[in-house]
Input
Amino acid sequence: MARRTLMVLVSMLAALTFAVCAPGCGNGPPTDQQLVSVTIANERFFLEPAIDLPTRVQGLSGRAEIARDGGMIFVFPRASRQGFVMRDCLVPIDILFVADNGVIDSMHAMQIDPRQEGESAGDYEHRLRRYMSDGRVRIAIELAGGTIDRLNLKPSDRVSIDGLDDLKARAR
Output
């Protein structure tokens, strides 16, 4: 019962966050100066930072496309086992969970999981597949679907994140 209540509260927070931060409402993607430069398999990416709860909950939901060199970097205040869902996502997303030393802990090719007609927010939230990190991490990186395969990534590969210490200090 407590789990169901928690799931309903999370979905209500997600709905509120989406209403406040929906794309096109003035809270769009950051400017180039706000993007975080990340190098993965010798390829440079320019990622939107998600360092607070509303931005992390919103994530890339509602985006019709993700640039080949774009995506989002999620930085959490503390290392813990992280889990992500594809709530209201319109395109496939690859996720990398990264340890503080820059090593990929685990990764997933996440698939679109649309809300069914007539499905309540709570039911939708409850049935969404959770994509979990293997270990305790503070960093998750979301990229366009297919990037893991295109770059032939595997756990234990390294990621270089410009300004990581600053991002960690600002995470809340």
About this structure: The longest strand covers residues 71-84. The chain is about 25% helix and 35% strand. Confidence is low (pLDDT under 50) at residues 5-28.
